[in-house]
Amino acid sequence: SLVCFFVMPRERAAARRNLSRVTGTTGWANLRLAYRLFFNFSRFMVAYTELKRLDPRELANRVAGREQTDQAVQSLIDEGRGAIMVTMHLGHWDLALKLLSRFNVPVHVVMLNEDPKEVTRFAEEARATPNLSVHQMGSSPLLGVELMTRLTRGEFVAIQADRPVGQNVIVTEFFGAPAPLPTGPVQLAMATGAPVLPVFMLFDKGNNYRIQSLPRMLFTRSGRDHSDQDLREAMKRMTEMMESVISRHPDQWFNFFDVWPEPRSGRAGGAHG
């Protein structure tokens, strides 16, 4: 962690700017927070060394808060309407997928993988379970249709909602400044009526974790004439949910690039003070 913190100045600077926007910290407080971010990302990477061999039931014993999330997931399965599991690049999302494999429901993970095979093979091996399928963004123009079909069959879709990818992106107020964010999860929910369940696997003390699920979210359309307004209102609710989680765990939100494209005055300034 310490070596990476010093030899990756571009990533360190971007992380500090992001953290300043989120927390308002500057100077040494901001620097310490950035180092904690690098340290937690090291924990994230090291966790892959045991994920492949770790039985989901054994993992469950190291995760606090799972009873509430288990009840929420089982309730969605019983309703049979499908569900969209929304998370972010926060904590350890692949551990959450591993835990989800205990349930007898097909899960379709949507992601964008631009890293070399040598880098991604550990993650691919770790998340490989019988009920889980990975769909690459942009792999097919019919991906959205396929995901809608899966949801109507009562299956689950898992997707991260904090990084803009492709054409389904909108500039939204995020921590007081405009930022591009993906609309895919919201549009999928509006098109199918499937509930959205925000779920986050957080690092806890020692070698343990804590899973946090928030109340389900429903997004509806009021009509074709109001589709743009409906989308913007839905994205506002989504960003407010994301802000509430990131604010409590800023040192576990792994973005080593500028989330806000342009430097802005106010809280974003002074990250290097």
Task: Write a compact overview of the structure shown.
Helix content is 46%, strand content 17%.
> Average pLDDT, to the nearest integer?
88
Q: Quickly give the structural class.
A: alpha/beta
Shape: globular
- Radius of gyration (Å): 19 Å
Order of helices and strands: HHHHEHEHEHEHEEEHEEH
Describe this structure in words.
The protein has 273 residues and is α/β, with parallel strands linked by helices. The chain contains ten helices and nine strands. Helix 7 links the parallel strand 3 (107-111) and strand 4.
Overview features:
alpha/beta, 273 residues, disordered C terminus, 7-stranded mixed β-sheet, 46% helix, two-stranded antiparallel ribbon, 10 helices
Task: Annotate the secondary structure layout.
Elements: H1 2-7, H2 9-23, H3 27-51, H4 56-60, E1 63-64, H5 66-79, E2 83-87, H6 93-100, E3 107-111, H7 117-127, E4 132-136, H8 143-152, E5 156-160, E6 169-174, E7 177-182, H9 184-192, E8 196-203, E9 209-213, H10 227-248
Helix pairs in contact: 2-3, 3-7
